[in-house]
Amino acid sequence: MGRSKGYQDLDDSHIRPRSPGPPMPPPQEIEMASVSVVPDDTFTVTQAVNALGFGWFQVKLSLFTGLCWMADSMEMTILSILSPALHCEWNISKYQQALTTTIVFMGMMLSSTFWGNISDRYGRKTALSMCGVLLFYYGLLSSIAPNFLWLLFLRGLVGFAIGCVPQSVTLYAEFLPTKQRAKCVVLLDCFWALGACLEVALALVVMPTLGVHWLLALSTIPLLFFALICPWLPESARYHVASGEPDKALATLEQIAQDNGRPMLLGRLVCDDSVGIGQRGRLKHLLIPHLRNTSLLLWFIWSGNMMSCAFCYYGLVLMTTELFETDPSGLEEPCAADCRPLQTTDYMDLLWTTLAEFPGIFATIFIIEKYGRKKTMATQFVIFAMCVCVLIYNGNRTFLTCVLFLARGIIAGLFQAAYVYTPEVYPTALRATAVGACSAVARLGAMVTPYVAQVLLKNSIVIATSVYSLVAVLAAAACLALPIETKGREMRDTVTVTN
Questions:
Q1: Which residue numbers in the chain have pLDDT < 50?
Q2: For position 246, what pLDDT does the model report?
Q3: How many CB atoms lie within 10 A of CB 102?
Q4: Topology (CATH level 3) of domain 52-235+279-333+342-481
Q5: Residue 223 in contact with residue 71, Cβ under 8 Å?
Q6: Which of 52, 159, 264, 285 has the fewest CB atoms within 10 Å of its CB?
Q7: What is the C-alpha separation between 430 and 286, in angstroms, rounded?
């Protein structure tokens, strides 16, 4: 029966050649935890997802996941607007301004591995549904905070809920065919950029009239929509297989076939790797010999000596407003009572640099498929380092905006390339935990970056930009040292142990 014609993009590495001999007996039941051969009457989740292709099911999931990213982006972008506004309203110091950003990243750091563990143990949909409700609730409460301490507490809880947002990429990537996975995950950043632009436009309208508290409240509207659609999110078929629920996985695959207008594969669903870890969502399993080097290097890349990818990205976001406020010498030190609210030109420049994410996204799509994940990330880190070095010549506002435009596009594409690589390199049993751990370590860099982008920058632009450049160069070397290139590689459900 030529059933193999129904498949596409099958990975031959999962099929061991049969030695010549007598005819094989009729297929027998095979325990999913010990499958090493995929017989003709069986198929894996990977084979099913590749055969069913990209269609209406993935389009709907793109919109659902994209809404989550857009809402998260608005909550992140508001950080660069919130600090100057609170400086004017409550006369907070420059260290308190940095603390309003740090507290959010601290919440994200403390919760990211927690949400990853929840996702691997109880499902991606469960974690994202909880995240949507909590994020809307605490985001709305922070808009009515009566004083600075209450605002810090509530923004910390917002950060705790945001720690789950990277799991939307885990869910999304697990439903994408191998050939479309990289470009689709990178394109997801369009929703992030759209959310950032929407937040800047909203601030441009709301801040001069209603103030920062109304801005915080109105920014939660996309969070409400995401919380309401969470019941319609599909659960990952790979998660169901890894948790020993093949019937539920099969039902999800049948839904994909129906939505995409493709015939469902015949046969029995099996797990596609030979050796399983046994327990899902264990943080310590990220450091088993087979994964140790990959995990340590990825933690460095995401955080980079407690810096790198998140350090550079969020640092650039925060530096944008600070550089527009700072005089060309970079040595002006305003006192706590010296308030300069962001002007219309500041918001427009922030909007232009945010729009830079779109060309950065499309450039990343082109090079990530042509040159692979590792070389793409390394090259982008080096270009970013060069752009940041040029920021010391900030006397011309137009020149400064152009350099920030280029740097923002590069680092945005780089951040998304890391989101492509990480789910690809880890198995289903650990994927959400791995993404959560990388996100948690990245927040260490994000916690440090306000003190460089908002505090150190006001004392010395040269030192601040040098720090970012050095971190980017070190992270580029780490990218090239990664042991696995995932370009064209199918996603694994369990870890295969090799000598």
A1: 1-38, 273-278, 305-309, 327-337, 497-499
A2: 84
A3: 25
A4: Growth Hormone; Chain: A; (1.20.1250)
A5: yes
A6: 264
A7: 7
